[in-house]
Amino acid sequence: MKKIILTTIIAFSVTLLVAQYKGNFNYAYSRPLNNINLGILGDASLFSVNYERLFLNRSNSFFCTAGMGLGANPEISVFGPAYLFFAIPHHITANIGYKKHFFEVGIGGVYIYKKPNWDYINYMIAGLRIQPLESNDFYFRIYGCTTINDIKTGRLTIIPIGLSFGISF
Predict the structure, then answer these.
(1) Is the pTM higher than 0.90?
(2) Host H or E run for residue 97
(3) pLDDT at 25 over 50
(4) What is the residue range of 113's domain?
(5) Taken in order 6, 56, 127, 166, is the CA torsion positive or negative?
(6) Chain center to CA of 115
(7) What whole-number distance in Å separates Cα of residue 94 and Cα of residue 136?
């Protein structure tokens, strides 16, 4: 568990450092580097609010993203009370395409708080994305998730397809 947390912290630290570099890159398009979105299904969350940052945006056909959010996931219970679990989804993806339309692949994970412990699920991501060229424009993503590790979720709902939509700035 400590290795997973340390790897996640290092990955996001490197992401922030690379994303802030303003060297002599010749960008074909100056895309907005930030996305705020609402995620529905996918990421082992029923819904989540996410922040995403673009990095390695060196051409009009390739960029990478790193994102993190806060979400919730319900436990299905026919008899007895249903519970809503707290989730922290995060991901890193590579995106290949042209202008606004991209194919993305990557890895992600989610920490799920189920009293009294935390569970961790990691997964692979493949999807399609519409990433705008201008600020304050619509952002959309549809993706599928496939879990990598053994899931010990009990009655937790995990949907392998997700949607994200929001604004880029």
Answers:
(1) no
(2) strand 84-98
(3) no
(4) 2-22+34-168
(5) positive
(6) 24
(7) 22
